[in-house]
Amino acid sequence: MGPGITHQILLLEGSTPPITYSYTMGVRYTNLSRGDVMVRGAIPLWCQSLILHECYRAWPPIKPGDTRSGLLPFAPHLSLTFIAICDKTDKIDDPELLLWYERFAMDTSDHEFYGQKIEDSPEWQMARLEILENAVLCDISAEDARAITSMAMAWSNQRQQQQQQQ
Fold first, then answer.
1. 106: nearest Cα among 118, 120, 94, 92
2. Which domain holds residue 79?
């Protein structure tokens, strides 16, 4: 897959286990009709990577408001919903590496921003909003995360047993 994948952990007050999130960077540079994707949920990171990979391959490209199934090989029936990252309602940190990547690419911000502390400037806030409007978030609920993790472990164990028998 062309774009980079970044994995991070979000520590929410009173949450166990920590909620991990992964996201792509630079997808639109490999295909202008696509945008970056963030997956957040208490599922194994390899499951998040599978989802990101399938999102990248999906046609038509996933947009905010879409619901898709078939993104996990062990749960093809499971539907996942995507929203624009800027529409999230919690206080999760934004995908900072994606924002820096876009800032250095200078497609959504002027070159005079380079190297400046601009986080509070109106120009950067507009550019930041444009970046986040074009990126989608799949926020996996705790209930779905438990189901996904259970199915993923069963699928992984089954595949390991099959490989050992060969």
1. 118
2. 4-151
| In a domain? residue 164 | no
Amino acid at 159: R
- Give yes or no for a contact between 71 and 81, defined as CB atoms under 8 angstroms apart: no
Q: Tell me the whole-structure pTM to 2 decimals.
A: 0.78
Q: Report pLDDT for 106.
A: 60
Domain assignment of residue 102, yes or no: yes
User: How far from chain centre, in Å, is Cα 61?
Assistant: 14
Is 161 among the domain residues?
A: no
100 domain-assigned: yes
* Average pLDDT per 10 consecutive residues for the chain, totaling 166 residues: 54 61 79 86 94 93 95 96 84 70 63 57 77 88 95 95 91
pLDDT of amino acid 72:
97
Separation of alpha carbons 136 and 39, rounded Å: 9
Overall domain count for the chain: 1
Task: Render 83-113 in DSSP notation, one character per residue.
Answer: EEGGG--S-PPP-HHHHHHHHHHTSSS-GGG
